[in-house]
Amino acid sequence: MVRSRWRWKWLFLRRLTQVGILGLFLLGPMAGIWIVKGNLSSNLVLDLLPLTDPFLLLQTTVSGHLPETTALLGTAIVVTFYLLVGGRAFCGWVCPVNIVTDAAAWLREMLGLRPRARPSRTTRYWLLGTLLIMTALTGITVWEWVNPVSMLHRGLIFGFGFAWVVLLAVFLFDLLVAQRGWCSHLCPMGATYSLLGAGSIIRVRADDRARCDDCMECFRVCPEPQVIQPALKGTGDGPGPVITGMNCTNCGRCIDVCDQIVFHFGTRFHNKMEASS
Amino acid sequence: MTACGAALFGGGVTLYATNASAMPAQALRPPGVLDEETFLGACVRCGLCVRDCPYDTLDLARVGEPVAVGTPYFIARQVACEMCEDIPCVKACPTGALDPELTDIDDARMGLAVLIDQETCLNFLGLRCDVCYQICPLIGEAITLELDHNDRTGVHARFLHTVNSETCTGCGKCEAACVLDVAAIKVLPITLAKGQLGRHYRLGWEEQEKAGKPLLENIIDLPDRMPAGGGLQ
Ligand code: SF4
Ligand code: SF4
Q1: From the CB of B53, is ligand 1 less than 6 Å away?
Q2: Is the Cβ–Cβ distance between A231 and A240 less than 8 Å?
Q3: Are the C-beta atoms of residues B93 and A68 closer than 8 Å to each other?
Q4: Which of A53, A129, A135, B112 could form a disulfide with B193 if both were Cys (CB 3.0 to 4.6 A apart)?
Q5: A228 alpha carbon to ligand 1 midpoint, in Å?
Q6: pLDDT per residue as tens digits for the range B115-170
Q7: What is the DSSP string of B166-181?
Q8: Among A195, A226, A245, which residue terminates a domain?
Q9: Residues A227 and A263 in one domain
Q10: pTM score, two decimals?
């Protein structure tokens, strides 16, 4: 049942969202229209709704300072939202660094580069742990001196200085050193969001996995291909069709590229196979 | 191996961060700022304080600027703090890195003015400039003029600025207004500007006043010897 169809829908929507959100942030300083104030670390929407990044709040709390209610409330809202739409949906749909690392991945494919280093995908959790310990010991939020995510976003909105050096480093790292090196192996911010992903509701499902013809396209485009395997290849009493891996970014690229239309967005419930296997 | 790598990387970042967290003398923090070390843990670098400052006093530090990256600061000589009565910057802060208990802007301690160069200050040269004294929002309190004999002319007085640390908020208006090419009065972070007595030091005269009587019983108060011709008192 091979169909030809537009293979860019979710990628397009995702870029639109990323750029749109950035645009909302830029509208204030550039046009004086203040829909959102602040940056991704913490902001205020329509002078009413506070939003605070959970990883930032975590760092601040661990440093020994209990934040005010506004920041706590802001984090609660953000956490609830991502528990609904998927933890690392932040990475796929909001984070500006994703555009940088996707660009690196694209260029790497174009040039046919084969980076050698294969850091473990658990590195991010070790890094997250190390940073929290260091933050507790020093009392300062050490990661914020280099965090490419806040650097890029803040840079775009408040001015860069030399912050582009950090972004260039991330780009080159992904291009030359390790495939999908930053977002899929190192970023502690993504690691924090992935913890939410362990229980989040909206998931990609492979309900029609019986149709899979092993073209491997989804594995090629997925930034975290290890999450596809169980959902796609599970049979009988094995893993169900829901991609439950907490590092899935809900980017939907697999849905786009699959000619057999195996994948679609759904919820994490009803994860038992009946009919189709 | 993975854990070691992560620990090394994390350690490197920490070294860099702790190294780079020194504040330069001329950068000041917004009103209500917690002490620098707590602040560097508490501030999430969102810039909401910057956005709500109606005078564009504040800015977030960029990489390459000497203040901890992403944190809010101002440079007094460029735009001083106008000491808004409703303190919008503090109200905007979601984390409390700017202390919400600060409700009276006169209690802010953003820094401390110091008349740092007596050789170029016009008042110290015996002229009457007084600009910093006049512009101070707490005129007559934060900066007072102390009379002194002008040895050069022999007949005039010098009006010497003295900054009082109990009242100076560190808003920076004096530094911004100083008429010299380079300000003779500068607002410094308090840690730079202030000394501190030994913690066990007590000032005898203050203690005596508190006690309302001599601190040691039975001290015979001998007459003080005055300079030549003064006799005994
Ligand atoms: S008190 Fe007013 S002028 Fe001063 S930093 Fe805050 S908002 Fe700006
Ligand atoms: S509003 Fe508070 S947390 Fe945000 S940059 Fe200013 S001081 Fe830091």
Answers
A1: yes
A2: yes
A3: yes
A4: B112
A5: 52
A6: 999 999 998 888 889 899 999 999 888 888 888 888 888 888 888 888 888 899 99
A7: TT-----HHHHH--SS
A8: A195
A9: yes
A10: 0.84
